[in-house]
UniProtKB/TrEMBL annotation:
<dbReference type="InterPro" id="IPR012795">
    <property type="entry name" value="tRNA_Ile_lys_synt_N"/>
</dbReference>
<keyword id="KW-0436">Ligase</keyword>
<feature type="domain" description="tRNA(Ile)-lysidine synthase substrate-binding">
    <location>
        <begin position="256"/>
        <end position="318"/>
    </location>
</feature>
<dbReference type="GO" id="GO:0032267">
    <property type="term" value="F:tRNA(Ile)-lysidine synthase activity"/>
</dbReference>
<comment type="similarity">
    <text>Belongs to the tRNA(Ile)-lysidine synthase family.</text>
</comment>
<dbReference type="GO" id="GO:0005737">
    <property type="term" value="C:cytoplasm"/>
</dbReference>
<dbReference type="GO" id="GO:0005524">
    <property type="term" value="F:ATP binding"/>
</dbReference>
<keyword id="KW-0067">ATP-binding</keyword>
<comment type="function">
    <text>Ligates lysine onto the cytidine present at position 34 of the AUA codon-specific tRNA(Ile) that contains the anticodon CAU, in an ATP-dependent manner. Cytidine is converted to lysidine, thus changing the amino acid specificity of the tRNA from methionine to isoleucine.</text>
</comment>
<keyword id="KW-0547">Nucleotide-binding</keyword>
<keyword id="KW-0963">Cytoplasm</keyword>
<feature type="binding site">
    <location>
        <begin position="34"/>
        <end position="39"/>
    </location>
    <ligand>
        <name>ATP</name>
    </ligand>
</feature>
<dbReference type="InterPro" id="IPR014729">
    <property type="entry name" value="Rossmann-like_a/b/a_fold"/>
</dbReference>
<feature type="domain" description="tRNA(Ile)-lysidine/2-thiocytidine synthase N-terminal">
    <location>
        <begin position="28"/>
        <end position="213"/>
    </location>
</feature>
<dbReference type="Pfam" id="PF01171">
    <property type="entry name" value="ATP_bind_3"/>
</dbReference>
<protein>
    <recommendedName>
        <fullName>tRNA(Ile)-lysidine synthase</fullName>
        <ecNumber>6.3.4.19</ecNumber>
    </recommendedName>
</protein>
<dbReference type="InterPro" id="IPR011063">
    <property type="entry name" value="TilS/TtcA_N"/>
</dbReference>
Length: 326
């Protein structure tokens, strides 16, 4: 089957081709497609590059009513036209956020990962393409700076992220992290690829949208557009440094001995606790959660602290351990 994307050769296709050079187009891959500009460009771009065995995965978060359902119909139609299998589900992310004790953003991310885990198991496929691009990376680094994250957050998204959700293990691949939004838009326009615009992307109540629409344009005006490349360069440096520092963190046991933690440098303590919380599947652990657990080392302090998702950390008999939500 030939599409308009097959006959186009803008810079986008050249950059995408270089990014997926190590991936065999003869293999099967999952691809997360929302119906937006970026994921539709990735879907059609991979088709143009000869990837014939994609499985298109779409989760309707149930947040925008008829608009969400229209997104799902567009993605299913595109998958059928390109000759791909389509896997779709719907959920109510707002209700799940309340029941799980998470923010809407955190709950939606968790549900996407659970959906991809189900797709991975059903398809016996452990590689998932996602459409995050260079401008997403810039915004993520800036957002994490405002949140006060460490080097892990300031390194931004990785080109490959291994995930374990329940018994499913899979890898998120982001081949467009080196491609700018302008190039993606040019490809979409030149190939006349249909996509859906999410109205919430214009809502400046969301911090990321204010960064995209207000903060970054103002900084470019003050300091020149080179600030984008500086942020991307910094993220690459910090990713490499973070990877090295992670090799210094010992594998945590199921419970942590207070005396051993106290003997560690504080930076190593924080990293060990973060790894411990992640490996125990505590949702969205960050600085505040790490500091709460560190507070348990103070024998004059609390013996129990609350964590996201109904989890608790407790100190008893000089040991810190986790209690799972009921």
């Amino acid at each position: 089957m030939t599409t308009s994307a097959d006959n186009a050769s803008p810079d986008f296709l050249q950059d995408l081709s270089a990014a997926v050079d190590a991936y065999s187009p003869r293999r099967k891959y999952l691809i997360g497609v929302s119906g937006g500009r970026d994921s539709m460009a990735l879907l059609h771009g991979l088709r143009a590059l000869g990837f014939r065995h994609l499985v298109v995965c779409h989760l309707d978060h149930g947040l925008r009513g008829a608009a969400s359902r229209a997104d799902a119909r567009l993605v299913e139609k595109a998958a059928k036209k390109l000759g791909y299998r389509f896997l779709g589900e719907s959920c109510q992310a707002d209700l799940e956020a309340k029941s799980r004790g998470l923010s809407l953003e955190a709950a939606a991310r968790q549900m996407r990962h659970e959906f991809l885990a189900r797709c991975s198991r059903s398809e016996q496929c452990h590689d998932v393409f996602l459409a995050h691009h260079a401008d997403d990376q810039i915004e993520t680094v800036f957002l994490n700076l405002l949140r006060g994250t460490g080097t892990a957050g300031l390194g931004g998204m990785r080109s490959q992220t291994p995930l374990r959700v329940g018994k499913a293990e899979f890898i998120l691949h982001r081949p467009m992290l080196g491609i700018r939004r302008e190039s993606i838009s040019g490809y979409i326009t030149s190939c006349r690829i249909p996509f859906r615009e999410d109205a919430s992307n214009q809502d400046t109540r969301h911090t990321r949208n204010r960064i995209r629409r207000d903060a970054l344009p103002h900084l470019r005006k003050l300091f020149s557009a080179n600030i984008d490349e500086a942020i991307l360069r910094t993220s690459i440096i910090l990713q490499d440094e973070e990877a090295w520092m992670q090799t210094l963190v010992p594998a945590p046991a199921e419970s942590l001995a207070c005396e051993e933690l106290r003997a560690m440098p504080k930076a190593l303590r924080r990293r060990l606790i973060l790894r411990w919380l992640r490996e125990q599947n505590v949702p969205e652990p960050g600085f505040a959660e790490i500091e709460r657990v560190l507070g348990l080392l103070d024998i004059e302090g609390p013996a129990k602290v609350n964590l996201p998702g109904g989890w608790h950390a407790r100190r008893r008999n000089k040991v810190v351990f986790l209690e799972r939500p009921q």
